């Protein structure tokens, strides 16, 4: 493990700036170097980003949670400032990345929060390491293989789940901003909420050499993820689960999916938001997550 600590670099857009007491380090997992931001004291919580973002998306939530949690914010393998290995983009392997990060930070148990692809990694983590997972938060994403997965993936809007390969990479090369704009525009409730500074910030990461190859690999692993999750869901999760749906995106489907994989599910709907919850409705989203993590007792599915 390389535990050299350094101040987090100030980046474009106030919503991407972590508090000054957060530090970054590079942690060697199995086959990947994971860039991690760490700050705060208390019970551990790990925040997992998805496509179109990096761990920077969590800056506002991390600042709030760090008041009473130790907050760990990695970039997933192949994304952001993490390395770009040739393989390992199935979510079960990436769950092992997160387990390695936490172990090397001296953290045994943690709550796990994920959005988009990060939500699928979060589920894979909870399923693989249930005794290490205090709580699970799944934000506005379906989970491959878990019903009604077969109906959800028929949506024409999700064509990108199967998009990738050398020719796709040639099409997008030098046009990363255009490709990303499609997601920020079509999956937002209000595209103006993903402001120009945010778009410039993330586009720069995805324009780096190998970044789109890795991003496509995250999606092209979905058939393997579905296969793995169909096995995992035969044992339902028992830890408290929060399913957050965006009213103008996956909505109630998030809770429907998680009730097929977990026994103790609480549902929250974020109104007036599309998929980009932290950009579109940060106050309501932060409140939902912080309230759930702070509960003293579990709640029954409802």
Strand neighbour order, sheet with most strands = 1-2-3-5-4-6-7-8-9
CATH homologous superfamily title: Alpha/Beta hydrolase fold, catalytic domain
Low-confidence stretches: 1-12, 297-302
The overall strand count is 9
CATH class: Alpha Beta
State the secondary-structure class.
Answer: alpha/beta
Q: Main β-sheet, in a few words?
A: 9 strands, mixed
Write the CATH fold name: Rossmann fold
| Helical content class | 25-40%
What is the correct CATH architecture? 3-Layer(aba) Sandwich
N- and C-termini, Cα separation: 43 Å
**How does the overall form come out from the CA principal axes?**
globular
**Secondary-structure element order, as H and E?**
EEEEHEHEHEHHHHHHEHEHH
Instruction: Please give the radius of gyration in angstroms.
Output: 17 Å
* Secondary structure tally, helices: 12
Please state roughly what percent of the residues sit in beta strands, choosing from under 5%, 5-15%, 15-25%, 25-35%, 35-45% or over 45%. 15-25%
- The figure for the number of domains is 1
Global mean pLDDT: 93
Care to describe what's here?
36% of the residues lie in helices and 17% in strands. The chain has 302 residues and is α/β, with parallel strands linked by helices. Strand 8 (241-246), helix 10 (253-259) and strand 9 form a beta-alpha-beta unit. It is built from 12 helices and 9 strands.
